[in-house]
Amino acid sequence: MNKIGVGVAATFTAEPLGDALRFWLAELDAEGDAEEAVAFAPYDQVFPSLLDSGSVLGRAGAAVVLVRAEDMVAENMVAGQDGLDEVEAVATDLAAALRTSARASGTPHVLVVCPPSPEHGSPEAHARLASKLARAFEGDRAVSVLTSAEPYEPAPEAVHDAFADRTGNVPYTDRYFAALAAAAVRRLHAMTTPRPKVVAVDCDGTLWDGVVGEDGPDGVVIGPERMEIWRELARQVAAGRLLCLCSKNEEKDVREVFARHPELPVGLDDVAAMRVGWEAKSQALRSLAAELDLGLDSFVFLDDSPVECAEVRAGCPEVLTLRLPADAAEAAAFLRHCWPLDLLAVTEADRERTRRYQEERQREQARGEMSLADFFATLDLRVTITPAGPEHEARAAQLAERTNQFNLSGVRRLDGDEKFVVDVSDRFGDYGVVGLTDVRTEGDTLGAGAFLLSCRALGRGVEHRMLAHLGALARERGLARVALAFRATERNQPARDFLAALPATVEPYDGEEAAWYVLDAADAAAVVHTPGPAEERAAGPAGTTGPAGSVDAAASAGWAAVERIATRLTGADAILDAMRAARPVTEVAGASPVEATVMRMWAELLDVAPTSVSDGFFQLGGHSLRLVQFMARVRAEFGVELPFDTLYTTSFTVAEVAKAIEERQLADADDEELAGLLDELAGLSDEEIDALLDSGNG
């Protein structure tokens, strides 16, 4: 994740979430002190925390807000129509507060609608709240709503802790808090980390069991577990990711497998490009990147072979190369827990991406058959520039996030007074919305803080028409100048080439890193496209790998971390085990089994782990909330409830609490169990009793 601190606000006591959040920040190598990376708003102060820019949420790099319907509606109104109407009203207010907070802070917000308690909650109210909020933020890129802890949701009996809820308003088990934290951090990761654009997949041992070159197209097997892999790839294609095949095989054999399995959810028509042959896979991936005019850092490569993965990691370090487990079921589970493949908002442009790349292949073919000037003359390019409306909001945000090569200022956040979107089509098909300008008027100048164009429309003169539109708009409004903001980045050389050819003067701003390229409005309106060397480079196949040795975007997630999460941290129990392993317990000679268990619990809960049975709970950093958590664990582990007056003492040590647990267990034993135990002891010889005592002490 992007090195962020997390602020948390909840309608219930949510501090147990903190340990799991800190675990994930450490797991993802976030910078800073993990102990200080998570901060909690005061109890049940969700609305004040969202509306106060100086609150924990306003100061954090990301916000997690947890709510229950029963906490937000009067208890006597939870059930019935009046209660549901009240839930609707609360949801409306909460949505408004979330938008205010996200807009003011500019940071991602995850809202978690948590399950109702079995005793006091209303499933209907929960469902109404979850549905209303999910609809309110559908497609929103700043606020994301979770209505469960999937895919980490444990069994229903492992969710609620009635004792801790009654004692300290801590409604959930440690297992469920671990699941909630994992789901929230995973969603934040999807909101803050660049997503891959291409999924390149091996064939033998990945898409099917067997080797098609040896077993033949009829000999390979696509069983139910392999079919799950195909379904995941189909979801990726539907969300706009480009699917490529990269396999050492004969192409005709691979095509024949597709032909003989029409039931597959992905067909050859869904494949944007393929490299099936005998060259090294790193070379094949570089060739695919050139054909698609995309950087290697936007690729994910999936292969079951450790040798092939090692070769690609060495030859294409920019690619996020992941080794799938050989077992088909494990491979399918791996993909379900592969965080970089998570899908958020999907635009219509995403759904059409594969088709547009196929149309681009037709353009490339036509371009190869004639001169560049003749190609542009016959392209029948149609450029429509209109004010951006609500229907363009998701696509505009996506363009700002993803556009690199022709992004004049490198801007990711739009804050101008007016936005214009650029829709392009030609005789081969419709590009969709591929360009964006974000402008405001200052004095006699129309300034464009954002001026960007998708690489798939680059080099065709669209950028010139965008500038001419701004020039005409400035003249229409009586403005004298048009200014384009520019900031050099590692990847926007095409933007520099465009600016260098303009009749513009350069005025610095914001230090030495940025500048305004300023044109007379009449000159801007008269700009036309003349194909030349720069257009030849932009229009032709790209080298696309960026500066030598550059590694960022998808690859920055780190293949080792992605694989570790997708194979080891796939459920709440596994996450808790990993958290416990990170905080080892000191073994104390002579400690009884109960004392050893208490020491393990304290090591997991407290700032400092105990090292002897004489260590005290409060001396090790314990406080009232930790006490409630400890009591809940004792109840779950030993089946007894410890009274508060036993615990709020200076003698609350490992040894003393272990003794209290044993005494309570004995006191709670019913007469029949006690009588049975006494009968059993009465039947033992002195030697057998001594042997039992010795084994217990050991």
Automatic annotation (TrEMBL):
GO terms for biological process: amino acid activation for nonribosomal peptide biosynthetic process; secondary metabolite biosynthetic process. It holds the Pfam family PP-binding. Transmembrane segments: none annotated. It comes from Microbispora rosea. One of its GO terms (molecular function) is phosphopantetheine binding. This is HAD-superfamily phosphatase, subfamily IIIC/FkbH-like domain-containing protein. PANTHER family: FATTY ACID SYNTHASE, NONRIBOSOMAL PEPTIDE SYNTHETASE. Residues 589-665 form the Carrier domain. GO terms for cellular component: cytosol.
